[in-house]
């Protein structure tokens, strides 16, 4: 998400919207090949899904999985919303993915009929799956791939249509509100239950759903709630692109009645509330049959407000500092550092797993820290001279000033510590988390954000205290990255990650998700290419930091400081005496 772009993804001035500068063979390097060429948005629709419900139609959801490079394990990437009572869903929620021309990105789309509120997919009926690559979608005609759904022997499972659209870099969002008047009455016993469906047009003339309003019950003159949508989702930044709006009458069985439709564009809508933004709702079938047909009602735009979304880099430009702290596991389970089997083995020819994790993450984060001074801590060792066990000691041996200069300084202090301390135990995380939390608690104005990297070989001993520390820290400007090295089972770490179930302690839930865990073994490159391993590791562990950072700023209502003006040297005016 960030960091790597600094060195490799630069564009030439004035090329912001066009193609990035092409690398010649001479300046190609391994890291720049893992910079996404662009981001693409995947839209998913299905036709003729299996019907698994007895009294109504299926309630489908789509779950996307990706496959890690050099690893056969599938990881969940995201889920669409559930659409009730339909075998032909057009999912509104999109998947936004980095697109790498030079990497094979394997994708798997699984479809389920949702039967309850449980997030556990095994509790729902499987409707089939489709395998493809991201390149296959992008490379199809019109970037639109249509494929059969498979996975249930002897059954026709329907088809899936996946469309990829390259994203324009548009950060504006729009807050809009609509009302309608004198809509057609569709219900036998009452008035209609209207809702609006917005579609943006694609380059090939087809339409992609981008928003649905709520249903307003039993009225022909509904006022819908204001809703916020990104300009990117509404028209991909093309202000003159057609936006089609359909009006439906909601029915419980999913067979919503079509009332009519109208078209507009972002440019028209941006005029705001005016006579230009009152639209006749037209039902083409009725218009064709009835000579006296005028319309099926009108829809009026009540308000239109543009908001610019702030990004992680807006805060960085405004001067927010990212403070990076390292904590290293010195417990005996790592093995004797003098033995090649040890995870702390000091091989003169290559970095050990701890060293690789420190470098991979640190070299990127240090770009966001102006003084490049990083506190480096250790835990789980006996310290000289008296052999006391510490879970929060300075790697450089100076508890008053545990700062090391740059990642090179951290590495040097790490190697020096290995020679002086005795690996011991247990594996306690809470002291180092609380150490960083004390600093984070003293600056809550948005000027600083703290990232703690914990590198560990595994099984945690103080789970209850660690959960308590994380729940407390979730209110502070900090994030925690945990890299697990070695062959241990890391089930407890997955629990701390909080991606699936928000972490809690004594009935209190974390205010936000601040922990990202990855097992280092997923990144070991079979060909021995450590640069690539480190680039992948960095990309994954740092991917969530900008969103965690933004979630803290949003909750606290902290806006980015204005970027300082570019420096211009003072002009000396020569005064001439008359």
TrEMBL record:
InterPro entries named among the record's database cross-references: C2_dom, C2_domain_sf, C2B_Copine, Copine, Copine_C, VWF_A, vWFA_dom_sf
Any GO BP: cellular response to calcium ion
GO cellular component, one term: plasma membrane
Molecular function GO labels: calcium-dependent phospholipid binding; metal ion binding
Residue ranges of domain VWFA in the record: 323-524
Keyword Metal-binding belongs to the record: yes
Keyword hit for Calcium: yes
Residue segments, region Disordered: 1-21
Record domain C2: where: 20-147, 156-279
Keywords, in A-Z order: Calcium, Metal-binding, Phosphoprotein, Repeat
Family according to the record: Belongs to the copine family.
Function: Probable calcium-dependent phospholipid-binding protein that may play a role in calcium-mediated intracellular processes.
Protein name (record): Copine-8
């Amino acid at each position: 998400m960030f960091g790597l772009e600094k060195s490799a993804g630069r564009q030439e001035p004035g090329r912001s919207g066009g193609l990035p500068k092409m690398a010649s063979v001479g300046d190609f390097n391994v890291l720049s090949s893992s910079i996404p060429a662009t981001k693409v948005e995947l839209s998913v629709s299905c036709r003729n899904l299996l019907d698994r419900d007895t009294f109504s139609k299926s309630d489908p959801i789509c779950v996307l999985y990706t496959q890690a490079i050099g690893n056969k394990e599938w990881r969940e990437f995201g889920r669409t919303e559930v659409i009730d009572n339909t075998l032909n869903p057009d999912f509104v929620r999109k998947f936004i993915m980095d697109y790498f021309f030079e990497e094979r990105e394997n994708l798997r789309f699984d479809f389920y009929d949702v039967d309850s509120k449980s997030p556990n997919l095994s509790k729902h009926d499987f409707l089939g799956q489709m395998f493809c690559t991201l390149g296959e979608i992008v490379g199809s005609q019109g970037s639109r791939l249509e494929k059969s759904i498979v996975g249930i022997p002897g059954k026709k499972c329907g088809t899936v249509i996946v469309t990829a659209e390259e994203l324009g870099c548009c950060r504006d969002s729009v807050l809009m509100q609509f009302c309608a008047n004198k809509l057609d009455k569709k219900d036998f016993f009452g008035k209609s239950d209207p809702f609006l469906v917005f579609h943006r047009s694609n380059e090939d003339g087809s339409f992609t759903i981008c928003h649905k309003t709520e249903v307003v019950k039993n009225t022909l003159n509904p006022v819908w709630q204001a809703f916020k949508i990104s300009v990117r989702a509404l028209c991909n930044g093309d202000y003159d692109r057609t936006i089609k709006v359909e009006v439906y009458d909601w029915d419980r069985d999913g067979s919503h009645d079509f009332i009519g439709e109208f078209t507009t564009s972002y440019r028209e809508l941006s005029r705001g509330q005016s006579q230009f933004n009152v639209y006749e709702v037209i039902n083409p079938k009725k218009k064709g049959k009835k000579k006296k047909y005028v319309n099926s009602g009108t829809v009026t735009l009540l308000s239109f407000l543009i908001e610019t979304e702030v990004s992680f880099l807006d805060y960085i430009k405004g001067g927010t500092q990212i403070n990076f702290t390292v904590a290293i596991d010195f417990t005996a389970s790592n093995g004797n550092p003098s033995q090649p089997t040890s995870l702390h083995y000091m091989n003169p020819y290559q970095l050990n797993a701890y060293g690789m994790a420190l470098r991979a993450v640190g070299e990127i984060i240090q770009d966001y820290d102006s003084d490049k001074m990083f506190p480096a801590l250790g835990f789980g060792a006996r310290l000289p001279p008296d052999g006391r066990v510490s879970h929060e000691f300075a790697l450089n041996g100076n508890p008053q000033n545990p700062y090391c200069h740059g990642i090179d300084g951290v590495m040097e202090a790490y190697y020096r510590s290995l020679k002086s301390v005795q690996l011991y135990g247990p594996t306690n995380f809470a002291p180092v988390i609380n150490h960083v939390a004390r600093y984070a608690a003293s600056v809550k104005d948005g000027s600083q954000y703290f990232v703690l990297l914990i590198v560990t070989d595994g099984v945690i001993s103080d789970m209850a205290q660690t959960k308590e520390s994380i729940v407390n820290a979730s209110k502070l400007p900090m994030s925690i990255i945990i890299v697990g090295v070695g062959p241990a089972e890391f089930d407890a770490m997955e629990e701390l990650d909080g991606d699936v179930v928000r972490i809690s302690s004594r009935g209190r839930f974390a205010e936000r998700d601040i922990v990202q865990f990855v097992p280092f073994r997923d990144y070991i490159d079979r060909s021995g290419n450590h640069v690539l391993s480190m680039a992948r590791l960095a990309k994954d562990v740092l991917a969530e930091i900008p969103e965690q950072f933004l979630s803290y700023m949003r909750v606290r209502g902290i806006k980015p400081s204005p970027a300082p003006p570019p420096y211009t040297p003072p002009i000396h005016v020569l005064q001439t005496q008359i």
